[in-house]
């Protein structure tokens, strides 16, 4: 086998998975607890807020770190989220060393990997766990990975991952709910060509890492152009990979025999930044935020500006968002929004923008084109008094004036991560108290969410029911 050998007899796909770490056990316990966010709406926000490192870039880089067979290295800007802790558990279950040093620094040593079969329970909790398939099969010539979890926002198939790996010389089998992939030549993956029918983020990331260790040149076309994909490419190049075309729709990858680890800083989270920008808009406030990469936020700034918000770049990585007064008859105007792959409007901000549109004047239309079932928040926004008509993947929103008496707080339930964030934002805009359950979804992707909103002046508390305890800010 050309692929790196796991030290015999520890070809661990036959060994039981390693136990999940204490940290991830805590995270699991946390997820089981009944956390609620209690938001008292109607107030304004002010001040400056910090943006964490990108969840989706961090998850892809943590998976990509499995390509690196030499020594320990530090990743910076890794947000402390239940998803990143779960990904750390996935890596540990393979034998990698992962140390969370605080302040966003995570030290990874994937040199000691002893298994090609990650813990299935951890894989099933997040979408990005499946991304380890690429590095594992490329490095060891085989891998067996359970089907992934993540937000329930559509069927989320994995056909592109599997067809792409087959184009690199892998044989793929699906059995007992797991995907087993082996290099057909019994050695390792070989360079090849693959056209993605749809520019899938995860499939692009998985195939890019696999191709980085394949024998020869790989050309991937119609790939995802998301900044998180480009960040993963930047990380792999720092580790010795040869990748051209990151950020464009074609990647040309010249595979290397080995990659070495390297220090790397994750980009700021454009989805968290967008969520905080909506927080300013929906409460008709003025806030600033940093660090951001303004170029990643173009479609978001365009929509907020069209609504009547004023956005000023105050420094290279600082934005100020103001909705204190609007040129459009004094209030924000509704608009048409369609989610698309980058550089189009991100699906991960669709629910938050829908919450905003319920407070804007006029009729707005939101078309979700990326995922076929990402409208769970509509029913909950309707409970708050929003007038939304759903037709397939399109929502027609009859806007209301901000602080209209018709929008009022009540208990609502988050069914997924961004839908949950949308309910928090809506709760900040409506009169009265909104109690949001299903908070474990929000904790998957927002670092210190309520602490950040509190620091801006929001009235928000975390209630942990079964501990009979009311906590404010971060738990
Ligand atoms: C961990 C992570 O990075 N998650 C992000 C990633 O998810 P994820 O990588 O899962 O999203 P994809 O880009 O793959 O999905 C987009 C569309 O492609 C389809 N598809 C995907 C793969 C496949 O093999 N076949 C197929 O048909 C999906 O069903 C979906 O309709 O990108 C999404 C789109 O920006 C974001 O919402 C998620 O936050
Ligand atoms: C859909 C999301 O995440 P995941 O792909 O991890 O489910 C998200 O971040 O909004």
TrEMBL record:
Q: Kindly state which keywords UniProt assigns to this record, in alphabetical order.
A: Cell cycle, Cell division, Cell shape, Cell wall biogenesis/degradation, Cytoplasm, Peptidoglycan synthesis, Transferase
EC? Answer: 2.5.1.7
Q: Which GO terms describe its molecular function?
A: UDP-N-acetylglucosamine 1-carboxyvinyltransferase activity
What the entry lists under CDD domains is as follows: UdpNAET
UniProt cross-references to SUPFAM superfamilies, sorted A to Z? EPT/RTPC-like
- Enolpyruvate transferase domain residues: 40-453
Name the InterPro entries on file.
Answer: Enolpyruvate_Tfrase_dom, Enolpyruvate_Tfrase_sf, MurA_subfamily, RNA3'P_cycl/enolpyr_Trfase_a/b, UDP_GlcNAc_COvinyl_MurA
Catalytic activity, reaction form? phosphoenolpyruvate + UDP-N-acetyl-alpha-D-glucosamine = UDP-N-acetyl-3-O-(1-carboxyvinyl)-alpha-D-glucosamine + phosphate
Q: Where in the cell is it found?
A: Cytoplasm
Kindly tell me the pathway this chain contributes to: Cell wall biogenesis; peptidoglycan biosynthesis
Keyword Zinc present in the record's keywords: the answer is no
Q: Name one GO cellular component term.
A: cytoplasm
Instruction: Provide the family line.
Output: Belongs to the EPSP synthase family. MurA subfamily.
Which NCBIfam families does this UniProt record tie to the protein?
murA (TIGR01072), PRK09369.1 (NF006873)
From the Swiss-Prot or TrEMBL record, give the protein name: UDP-N-acetylglucosamine 1-carboxyvinyltransferase
Species of origin: Ananas comosus (Pineapple)
Q: Taxonomic lineage per UniProt?
A: Eukaryota, Viridiplantae, Streptophyta, Embryophyta, Tracheophyta
Q: Which gene encodes it?
A: LOC109722091
């Amino acid at each position: 086998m050309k692929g790196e050998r796991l030290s015999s007899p520890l070809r661990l796909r036959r060994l039981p998975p390693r136990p999940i770490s204490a940290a991830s056990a805590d995270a699991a316990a946390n997820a089981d607890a009944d956390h609620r966010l209690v938001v008292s709406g109607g107030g304004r926000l002010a001040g400056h807020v910090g943006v964490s490192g990108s969840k989706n870039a961090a998850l892809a880089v943590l998976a990509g770190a499995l390509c690196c067979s030499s020594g320990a290295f530090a990743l910076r800007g890794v947000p402390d989220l239940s998803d990143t802790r779960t990904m750390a558990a996935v890596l540990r279950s393979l034998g990698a060393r992962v140390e969370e040093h605080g302040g966003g620094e995570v030290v990874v040593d994937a040199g000691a990997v002893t298994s090609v079969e990650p813990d299935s329970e951890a894989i099933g909790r997040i979408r990005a766990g499946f991304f380890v398939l690429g590095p594992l099969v490329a490095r060891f010539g085989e891998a067996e990975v359970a089907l992934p979890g993540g937000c329930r926002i559509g069927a989320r198939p994995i056909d592109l991952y599997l067809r792409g790996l087959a184009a690199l010389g892998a044989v793929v089998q699906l059995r007992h709910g797991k995907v087993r992939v082996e290099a057909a030549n019994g050695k390792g993956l070989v360079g090849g060509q693959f056209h993605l029918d749809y520019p899938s983020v995860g499939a692009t990331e998985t195939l890019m890492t696999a191709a980085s260790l394949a024998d020869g040149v790989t050309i991937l076309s119609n790939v995802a152009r998301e900044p998180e994909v480009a960040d993963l490419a930047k990380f792999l190049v720092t580790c010795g990979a040869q990748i051209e075309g990151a950020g464009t729709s074609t990647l040309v990858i010249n595979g290397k025999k080995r990659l070495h680890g390297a220090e790397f800083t994750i980009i700021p989270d454009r989805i968290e930044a967008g969520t905080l920008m909506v927080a300013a808009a929906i409460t008709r406030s003025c806030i600033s935020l940093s660090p951001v990469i303004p170029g990643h936020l173009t479609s978001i700034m365009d929509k907020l500006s069209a609504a009547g918000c004023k956005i000023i770049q105050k420094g290279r990585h600082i934005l100020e968002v103001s909705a204190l007064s609007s040129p459009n008859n004094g209030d924000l105007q509704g608009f048409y929004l369609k989610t698309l792959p980058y550089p189009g409007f991100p699906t991960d901000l669709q629910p938050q923008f829908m919450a905003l549109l319920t407070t804007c004047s006029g009729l707005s239309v939101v078309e979700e084109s990326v995922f076929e079932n990402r409208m769970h928040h509509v029913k909950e926004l309707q409970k708050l008094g929003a007038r939304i008509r759903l037709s397939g993947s399109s929502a027609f929103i009859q806007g209301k004036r901000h602080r209209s008496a018709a929008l009022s707080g009540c208990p609502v339930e988050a069914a997924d991560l961004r839908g949950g964030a949308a309910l928090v934002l809506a709760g900040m805009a409506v009169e009265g108290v909104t109690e949001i359950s299903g908070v474990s979804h929000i904790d998957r992707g927002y670092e210190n969410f309520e602490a950040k909103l509190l620091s801006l002046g929001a009235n928000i508390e975390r209630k942990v029911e079964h501990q009979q305890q009311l906590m404010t800010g971060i738990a």
